Amino acid sequence: MEGFLGTILGFLGVALAIITPGIGSSVGVGLVGRSGAGVITEDPDKFGSILLLEAIPGTQGVYGFLTGLMIMIRIGALGGGLRTLTVGQGILFIMAAMPIAVVGWVSAIFQGRVAAAGVGIVAKRPEEMGKAVILAAMVETYAVLSLLASLLLVFSVNV
Amino acid sequence: MAISEMRRVAVLGHESRIGDVVTTLQRLGTVEVSADTADLSCPFNPAAGLAHVDSVMSELKYSIDIMGRHRRISKTAIESFTGYRLYLTDDEWTMYVRDGAENAHRIYAMARAVEQSLADLAAAEARILTSIEYLEPWRELRVPVEQVVPGKYVGLALGTAESRSYEAALADAAEAVEGMSWEIVTAEKDKVRLLVAYPMSAADDALRALAQAGFAKVSFEQYSGAPSDIIAQLEQDLQSIQAQRAQVERDVDILVEERPRAFALYDFFALERARLDVTNKFGGTERTFVVEGWIQQANLQGFRTAIEQLADDIVVLDRPPREDEEPPVELENNRFASAFEPVTKMMGYPKHGSLDPSPFLGPFFLIFFGLCMTDAAYGIVIAALAYWLIGQTRARGMGRQFLNLLIMSGLATVFVGAMLGGWAGDLLQRLFGWRTAILFDPMEEPTKFLILSFALGVIQIYTGIILKAYDNIRRGDWMSAIFDQVFWLVFLTSIGLALGGGYLGPSGPAIASAGQKLLLASAIGLVLTQGRHHKNPLMRIGSGLLSLYNTTGYMSDIVSYARLFGLGFTSTVLASVMNDLMLRPAGIPVIGPIIALIGLVFGHLFNILINIIGAYVHSSRLQYVEFFGKFFEAGGRRFMPFGMSTKYVDVENAKGA
């Protein structure tokens, strides 16, 4: 157990990176889907535009998954050669996962709210749909930055 | 390569030519008619014609809705995204719109008849079902219901009573009224149905006693015959309704065959409505008319020829816009640059007289899109898909430009992917051990990828500042170009040299110290000039000092380009993980390679799908926020020429009505 604790912490890092942004994206995508379904009831032709909006808050989940994957690669969880980590290394991986775990989670929910409001634009002024997309994409910046920070930290851990 | 040059045109002629002129205006679709005839009142009142057209259009709309409700249009998968269009040749169009109003009325009558029949049948069916439900519990009664009436000596009644209490209660009633008896028709858990007989001599007492016993009379006034016979008859009626409904369904089929005609007629009348509507913007006297509007310089000659051909007495005048006029804005670019117009238009139209950013953002957009996808194979898929869609959707205008943009973005992705060695991720390396990266491999050197992103950001931001300088010089504002743009360019460059010059080989320290001196000089220049709009010298310096704070704005702009790395790296790593997972079963004999192949195809398609949206959106965002912010002047009014805008139908070689 003693020698294994570091690896356990490493796994916790993977889990954190994947779980919380995943939750955030589910909430965000769900928000847009719910309001989008209302518009599709009225006008099924708007399905394509709604789907595009709905996909936007989904990226945080992918970023989290990506960070988790990079940690898995670093600790050898992919491919069978699992390394034994020191407790310090394990904690470093957890800390490295923190930016995307927190910012990915929160930003996905807020992005979902912006995109859900954008559904109104698609309903009333479909030609202005691009603006709804851009409004939602503005929120994404901070998820991208936190992904960047997380990745750079994951690379920096010596294993 | 810019914002279209607009001319103001006016057409004057005799009132009798107005129809021809309007039709030609609509067919050419090159003039935005705008009322600027304040000194001439509009003598043309199309209200009567409009009322007629509106009524025909609402009939057609009703008919089209009825058709849509009963028979959905079979759309292809693509059409469910892009919306349905009916494509007609010129001849088909002419055939469909002949005797327009008559055919519209005929279709409307058919639709009304179908709706009416269906409503009648539904009502009849509901009535029958209610009757059956009412009679069903009395099925066991053998007596025809019309005979259950008060007779000369004996009164009969049907009714219900409580299961639990009826025996005792009725026994009491029978004691009170001599000769009363009853028979159970059906008994249920909480209710019994009874046939009651009583002597007419004591009818009032009997009925009162029965009411006290909880007996509730049931009426069958509207029926005759035994309940089981009536039900059998009603069930036959139901079957006949089904048969009639099948007949109406055949009528619906016949109605739906008219759908293309209904679509064509709707658009035909919509076009007529537009023609009537536009005359509201005409000016005139008792015998003449004048119409004014905006036209693109390039279309002027064709317009003049077409109008003057109509008759000798029509005059076309044109002039450049006046100083106080704000002409509408249309973008005009060559085939390559026009593909980027949708990106600009999504942000909004540039102000009249400012720069059209479309050609300048093009190269950046393509490289950014390519970096976000980072895979040559994905690029091939995207370009091929867009090429295929052009053939499938017959898209025109903006849609076509957008698909062209997608083709170019796909090709750019091929280029960037080849540079960074992405061919369906690292598939080639896994299978054959090929090292495909020409520039560098982002998986091995992610930091280089990040630096590349920042470098592209610096280039684009500099381009934006230079464009603003060019715009200022174009307007003759040399001062602003030097103080606001050149000073900033020098300042930003010297920051870079002062901080990073030291790493540039043996002469690095010299470069760095030169950078520091330049930084100081340009900072002083900015402090002295950035507050020049203030009169008070103290305010000038204060405002100048404060302007240095804008540096943080430029820094955060550059950091924003990190998203290129974020998205590109995501795509690369996911591709590599797909390969890793999907190739694992490849070792299984016989079926292994098949499973791997299918898995790879689906895995990579999934990766394209989740990355393409981000690639488009973020490539756009970098233009709007980071690039446009440096020079773009929004607020242009979109040029909306009067033309053949239709809802359902596209006529190839449209000639109009």
Give the helices and strands of chain A as they follow along the chain. Answer: HHHHH
Q: Considering DSSP H and I runs of 4 or more, what fraction of the residues of chain B is helical?
A: 55-70%
Q: Greatest interface and its residue counts?
A: A-B, 30 and 31 residues
Class of secondary structure makeup of chain A: mainly alpha
Mean pLDDT of chain A: 90
Extract low-pLDDT stretches of chain A. none
Question: Major β-sheet of chain B, in short?
Answer: 5 strands, antiparallel
Helix content of chain A: over 70%
From the spread of the alpha carbons, the general shape of chain A counts as elongated
Structural Rg of chain B: 41 Å
Spans of chain B of at least 5 consecutive residues whose pLDDT stays below 50 are none
Main beta-sheet annotation of chain A: none
Strand content of chain A: under 5%
Oligomerization: heterodimer
The overall strand count of chain B is: 15
Commentary on this structure:
The complex is a heterodimer of chains A (159) and B (657). The radius of gyration of chain A is 19 Å and the shape is elongated. Chain A has helices at residues 5-42, 47-55, 59-75, 87-124, 129-156. The two termini of chain A are 19 Å apart. Chain A is mostly helical and 159 residues long. Chain B is of the alpha+beta class and 657 residues long. Chain B folds into four domains: 1-44 and 282-328 and 639-657, Alpha-Beta Plaits (2-Layer Sandwich), CATH 3.30.70.120; 47-134 and 230-269, no CATH class; 149-219, Alpha-Beta Plaits, CATH 3.30.70; 335-423 and 446-630, no CATH class. Chain B is 61% helix and 11% strand. Chain B has helices spanning 18-28, 47-70, 79-82, 90-97, 100-135, 166-176, 203-212, 227-256, 259-278, 297-310, 335-338, 341-347, 358-373, 376-393, 397-420, 427-432, 446-474, 478-500, 508-529, 537-547, 550-560, 562-583, 591-631, and strands at 2-3, 6-14, 31-33, 86-88, 154-162, 181-187, 191-199, 216-217, 283-284, 288-296, 315-319, 331-332, 349-350, 634-636, 649-651. In chain B, the strands form five sheets. In chain B, strands 2, 3, 9, 10 and 11 form a five-stranded antiparallel β-sheet that branches. Chain B has a four-stranded antiparallel β-sheet with strand order 6-7-5-8. Chain B has a two-stranded antiparallel sheet with strand order 1-12. In chain B, helix 17 (446-474) packs across helix 21 (550-560) and helix 17 runs parallel beside helix 23. The longest helix of chain B has 41 residues, at 591-631. Chain B starts with a strand and ends in a 6-residue tail after the last strand. The model of chain B has no long low-confidence stretch (mean pLDDT 85). At the A-B interface, helix 2, helix 3 and helix 5 of A face helix 3, helix 22 and helix 23 of B.
